[in-house]
Amino acid sequence: MDGVDQVLAADRYVDALAGADLVVLALPLTAETEEMISLTELEMMENHAWIVNISRGKHIVTDDLVWALQNGVIGGAALDVTHPEPLPDDHPLWTMTNCIMTPHIGATLEMEEPLLSERITTNVRRFAQGKPLHGAVYPDLGY
User: Fold this and answer.
1) Catalytic residue among 85, 112, 113, 118
2) pTM, to two decimals
3) How far apart are CA 68 and CA 44, in angstroms?
4) What does the pLDDT look like over 2-23, one tens digit per residue?
5) For residues 56 and 34, what is the distance between their CA atoms, to the nearest angstrom?
6) What is residue 105's predicted lDDT score, i.e. its pLDDT?
7) Is 56 an active-site residue?
């Protein structure tokens, strides 16, 4: 891939943790990816590194993340999703200075209609040309 130093197979994702300043989770939630980040993986990360989760809350073991943040195992977390969701009002992640919480909303109503219209138009054209569709759904894979 152009601009990429290294591509790892999915079963080697932990090899990318050591040395990374930022770890971003952007993947579907499947049986294989649920709780893929626990204390074991967090301890592989640099103590200044941040983890960003924009996928699903169940990718990270929440109690392990809280412990890692409280004990300086990693530098911080930016979470667009959590488990459970929503977090209870008294959950420690709400008040941690090394945790940024954002609402899991990827579009505004003003953005949604034009983006969806463009996706549908593009996919109808691609379908008519026999090309693969963008954003295809694979129920047998869980996403």
Assistant:
1) 85
2) 0.80
3) 11
4) 888 888 888 999 999 999 999 9
5) 9
6) 77
7) yes
